[in-house]
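FAQ

Q: What does a record look like?
A: Structure on top, sequence underneath. For example:
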């Protein structure tokens, strides 16, 4: 806590945010109204005063896949300082690699069928379409953000793309999935949970001839009301996550049989799209305030 009695909070971000769509700063004003002083800091900051902050929101460190171990070490230093880290380090560590999806699948969550590969070789690549029973497949890193190094592949792969794939994943774990057609026709649904409750939802629709649902890649972002089946699916998923996170984003796509399949559960640094709902920034501020206070009292 600062000398003037106000509480201090850090929002982690990147050294360079140019070209990124960030609206986490919308939560700053409502936090200030509750007596918080907010500082936006790069996660790579070599600081030794994390204990001077009452709470740290992981925020928008979207370049962490470039150096995930250094990122994890930074989070460990923050938590070791005694400040309240949101989300808890145990969840962040579990969520760092997309293999958490395999864990959730073992607990009954429906995900897109996935092949997990420690490395990608020519024989493995040649057999993936048949193994996944799909004419189009997606290959992406196990640790990644913003569709970086994500490939949509027809059965016929050009020599140039084949060489890039084998080089990219020669020593980098990856995952392969059948391409779900609804991504291009309907888009991907994202449901946002703040303080354990569903706050708002959006539908992300790729631009024509693309499959990436991030707005940095030209996708359209639409506020939506959540249909009951999707709400139930997401609520059941969130009941499995312990301890309860301050924030979460659950991404779903509609399968051919009508079920909603989990694409990702983002607990580290999801864009919360606070701008899409007027009440969302205040909702986050209230939840953050309660979250830090409840954990500071333990």
């Amino acid at each position: 806590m600062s000398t003037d009695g106000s509480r201090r909070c850090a929002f982690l971000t990147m050294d360079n945010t140019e070209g990124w769509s960030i609206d986490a700063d919308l939560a700053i004003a409502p936090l200030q109204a509750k007596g918080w002083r907010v500082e936006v800091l790069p996660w790579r900051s070599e600081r030794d005063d994390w204990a001077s902050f009452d709470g740290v929101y992981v925020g928008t460190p979207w370049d962490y896949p470039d150096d995930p171990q250094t990122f994890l070490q930074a989070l460990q230093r923050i938590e070791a300082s005694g400040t309240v880290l949101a989300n808890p380090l145990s969840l962040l560590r579990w969520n760092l690699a997309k293999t958490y999806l395999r864990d959730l699948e073992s607990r009954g969550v429906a995900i897109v069928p996935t092949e997990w590969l420690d490395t990608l070789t020519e024989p493995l690549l040649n057999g993936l379409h048949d193994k996944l029973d799909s004419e189009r497949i997606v290959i992406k890193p196990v640790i990644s953000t913003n569709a970086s190094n994500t490939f949509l592949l027809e059965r016929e792969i050009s020599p140039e793309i084949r060489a890039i794939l084998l080089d990219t994943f020669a020593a980098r774990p990856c995952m392969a999935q059948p391409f779900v057609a609804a991504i291009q026709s309907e888009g991907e649904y994202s449901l946002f949970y703040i303080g354990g409750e569903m706050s708002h939802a959006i539908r992300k629709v790729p631009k024509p001839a693309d499959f990436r649902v991030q707005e940095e890649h030209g996708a359209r972002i639409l506020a939506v009301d959540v249909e009951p089946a999707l709400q139930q699916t997401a609520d059941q998923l969130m009941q499995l996550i312990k301890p309860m996170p301050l924030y979460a984003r659950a991404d779903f796509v509609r399968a051919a049989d009508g079920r909603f399949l989990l694409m990702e559960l983002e607990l580290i640094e999801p864009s919360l799209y606070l701008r899409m709902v007027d009440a969302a920034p205040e909702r986050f501020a209230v939840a953050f305030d309660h979250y830090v206070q409840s954990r500071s009292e333990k």
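Q: Is there anything notable about this one?
A: The first strand starts at residue 7 and ends at 13.
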